[in-house]
Structure prediction request, 157 residues.
Amino acid sequence: MVTAAGWFDWLSALHLEDRVLLPDGTRLLAVHVAPGQDDGSGIHPALSDDELSLLVAEASADLVCVGHTHWPIDRTVAGVRVINTGSVSNPVALDLRASYALIDATEAGYHVEHRRVAYDVEVEIEAVERSRHPSGSFIISHFRGERHPWWANGRKG
Prediction:
């Protein structure tokens, strides 16, 4: 679907990392998986502080925003705050509402607010079924809460 829709070239041209200096001087790093990684298990709640510290040690950032695991996180290790926004459309957390985070940044500092929004999951499932997407059943299993990563072990998102 990505290739057929013409998105592959656009996706392949994206940067592995994006850096932003917030108005208060906070160095924000935005990545998909983890700093310096574009694949792998990513940053998830089962990581110990030591494991998470190793993943962000070379980030040269004060705030690291990640995705990939679709599991909301807000943790600080070794002076680095790590945020995972969760997922708007493909949740794996136990709370299946769409999740995202807002960052309000001013010269006085920044504030992160995680949000959850209920939506009509059945409408989305029907749309996936109509699309005949080759991985439709996999995508639908997320909407139904049937897929939990190996590291979840009953943790709440």
